[in-house]
Amino acid sequence: MTRLLACLAALLVLSGCAAIPTQTSPVPINPSAGNATEAAAPKPAKGIDPLTLVREFVNASANPDGDYAAAKAYLTEDAKKSWDIKAPPTIIESTFNTVPTGADLPSDPKRRTVLLQGKNIGSLEVDNSFVQRVGDLTAPVGLETDKDGEWRISDPPDGIYVPQSGFNSNYRRVTLYFYNPDFTVLVPDPRYVVVTPSTAIPRRVTELLLKGPAVGMRGALTTAIPNGAAQRTNTQEADDGALQVDLTKVGDLTVQVRRQIVAQVVKSLVGVSSSRIRVLVEGARISADQAEWRLADIQPLTGEALVTPDADLSGLVVSGGQVRKLVGGEPIKGPSGSGEYQVVSAAQSLDGTQLAVVSRVDEKGVRLRVGNLEEPLAQVDLPAITLTRPTWLLGGREDEPSTEVWTVADGSNVVRVLKTDNGWRANAVNASELSSTFGPITELRLSRDGTRVAAVAGGRLVVAAVVKGQDSSVSLRLARNLQPTVLGTAVLTVDWLAQDVLVAGTSLASLPIAKVNVDGLKVERYNASNLTVPVRSVTAAPGRNVVAVDESGLWSAGDVGDVWRASTVKVESGAKAFYPG
């Protein structure tokens, strides 16, 4: 392979290929699934040409059964031993090319070199989480003829490349649940596992759950499951039909920790099994009070009420310097609704009792005001030329109002404003990874569980983990640009539809509103009917219609396929709609 790469160096430079993602300390994505073996894998068709052989090899690489037996059928015996199948796979676009290089030696008709060319989408990490890594793919593949004169791959590409269509067929998205640092809310952590055999999926989910949060969320999420815990027996259906999870090496557990473990296990497994779930420790049930669990049994432990706005809170909108009701359109009571503050943008706390507004002071400055809804608001000592629409952190308990609201001053200074005995005080957040990498921050939204932020930075859709240090400092870590090839730098506004789903408004006529998974693997297009770009304001919440503001006014839609319906509330084109949070 070294000689081959040297021969191709000049060609690769001319083609402008990007660096192929690499991984460190790779481990198997999943134990080998199914009963496939190399002997059972179908052999390539006789007389197949080198270009087609490489294409079929890449398509076969999507199937990990039997240690990639289907793909190994295209390799020479030596290549089967040397091909690295332990590294996590890289997902590429389903449309890719196999082209000759022109570097083959005429004197050796038994050898060929083929270039695999395509577009990288991202890769699975060692923890089975997906991370977007877009860029050009150009990888050389060496071939030679075997004793029967058939072409086989002698120098496979470094790593495993899987077309997205094949990845979708062979892997399934599962959602694990871990707690926020205060253990008040369960937070989704998406992963991807092999689909066959389906009976093994609960075991794989349990394995991943025991290993803890994904690397990208370490420090933002925590787990009640003790470090070193393992499955005493494989998670599987018992004879009576219950899905049985038997844990070991958990040590002494308090009653509260036992309940939290049950909540994590049940919430993570209900997405892959409809069976009742039995949680054991060393063969004995984990709780003396209950033997089996369903989702309804753990609902009080999920914290869902803390992150779901009450149905009575129908949302608000800022228009003409006033805060008005989203339903009916009348101004709210107090100076925020009267126009006294000349409100530019605003945010209502999740419990609905508090309001934070960005108030216009003069042509060159704004100020943040915070206080009780429909009452005079205290001005925060935070001078700025611009402030992003505020965003509230959840309260500690259902009956506790929030004491923290975030905003971004002048495009780069992320601040958390905390309620103290002496009023509201601004504290800096370390957001250098976000602003220095992607550009000015024009929108920032805390997830309603407080563990992630979604931002519009340099027109890009970016997410990052919210990590709190032992000294009470807060940092935004592992900022990642979602769907850069689709959304580019055209994003104008964003909000959280769910804990792991975003809705973004753009200036793209073909994609005015996009629905994006938090890991960036999936993007869906909302119906563009009736909307005109740019869409400068969008708001969303669990179980609510998405509300957008374009040049003509307020619009709402229930799902991606729905036609946008006009609101009877008339607002300015620069209005800002918002649900609590």
What's the layout of helices and strands?
Elements: H1 2-15, H2 50-60, H3 65-72, H4 77-82, E1 90-92, E2 97-100, E3 111-124, E4 130-145, E5 151-155, E6 161-163, H5 164-170, E7 171-179, E8 186-194, H6 201-211, E9 230-237, E10 243-248, H7 255-269, E11 277-281, E12 284-285, H8 295-302, H9 304-307, E13 316-319, E14 322-325, H10 335-338, E15 343-348, E16 354-362, E17 365-372, E18 378-379, E19 391-392, E20 404-409, E21 413-420, E22 423-428, H11 432-438, E23 441-446, E24 452-457, E25 460-468, E26 474-481, H12 484-487, E27 491-498, E28 501-506, E29 513-517, E30 523-525, E31 537-539, E32 546-550, E33 553-557, E34 565-566, E35 576-578
Parallel strand pairs: 1-6, 10-11
Antiparallel strand pairs: 1-3, 2-3, 3-4, 4-5, 7-8, 9-10, 11-12, 13-14, 13-35, 15-16, 16-17, 17-18, 19-20, 20-21, 21-22, 23-24, 24-25, 25-26, 27-28, 28-29, 29-30, 31-32, 32-33, 33-34
Helix pairs in contact: 2-3, 6-7, 7-8
Label this structure with key terms.
17% helix; alpha+beta; 581 residues; four-stranded mixed beta sheet; Nuclear Transport Factor 2, Chain: A; disordered N terminus; 12 helices
